User: Which sequence fits this backbone?
């Protein structure tokens, strides 16, 4: 009942919010404390060119976080962001195990925690992978510049097919009887009809899926082609037993 209220890709919104804000917060914290302070930490970890890497990390977190937050170029932005996470995980957090929250004691000054593990690194990586594979979702900048797609299908031919209407047209020399069978016997509604159009008259009937129509035509001067034989079948499947019995009884009449 709630399917119509669920926009396509809505789950990407909370992922973008937490990943985008989280990265920007970490980048701003490093910038506020001073890039030189972070460069000293990188130098202690043995990272080459610590000052350059400090600025690259801060820019990656600020710019990449903003890109994820607004849904712009996430597949591109996720590459340096993932690199920052992997470096942090293997150079800092890995020796301390999985858990990022290690409550060690409660003192008069508050809770005391041990060194964080790599749990949060994996969570951020999982969110980035989900956004890359599943798309940025609604309200994303990329949506305004991407070509129109349907149901997430990037194949133009397939996307266009969802808007196609199928009409099965067949000639007949017994138009009134055929229409009576499908309209009164099977209960298909008459959608439209035409008379003396380029020498033809016809009736269109609708199948429950309104994208599919049946059209029966009759040439006013006699059919230019033979009517369908018994081998030319038009099969309609009626899954509801009650409806099938009802149509069967109408057909027998």
Assistant:
């Amino acid at each position: 009942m709630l399917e119509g209220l669920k926009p396509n890709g809505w789950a990407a919104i909370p992922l973008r919010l937490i990943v985008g804000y989280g990265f920007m917060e970490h980048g701003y914290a490093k910038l506020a404390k001073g890039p030189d302070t972070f460069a000293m930490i990188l130098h202690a970890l043995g990272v080459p060119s610590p000052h350059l890497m400090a600025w690259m990390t801060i820019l990656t977190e600020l710019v990449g976080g903003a890109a994820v937050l607004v849904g712009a170029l996430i597949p591109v932005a996720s590459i340096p962001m993932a690199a920052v996470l992997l470096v942090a995980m293997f150079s800092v957090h890995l020796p301390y195990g999985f858990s990022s929250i290690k409550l060690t004691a409660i003192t008069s000054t508050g809770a005391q925690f041990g060194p964080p593990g790599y749990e949060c690194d994996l969570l951020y990586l999982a969110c980035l992978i989900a956004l890359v594979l599943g798309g940025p979702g609604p309200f994303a900048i990329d949506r305004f510049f991407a070509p129109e797609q349907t149901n997430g299908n990037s194949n133009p031919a397939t996307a266009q097919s969802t808007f196609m209407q199928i009409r099965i047209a067949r000639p007949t020399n017994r138009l009134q009887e055929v229409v009576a069978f499908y309209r009164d016997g099977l209960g298909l509604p008459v959608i439209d009809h035409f008379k003396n159009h380029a020498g033809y008259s016809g009736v269109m009937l609708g199948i429950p899926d309104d994208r599919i129509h049946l059209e029966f035509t009759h040439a006013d001067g006699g059919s230019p082609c033979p009517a369908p034989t018994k081998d030319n079948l038009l099969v309609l499947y009626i899954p509801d037993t009650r409806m099938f019995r009802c149509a069967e009884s109408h057909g027998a009449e």
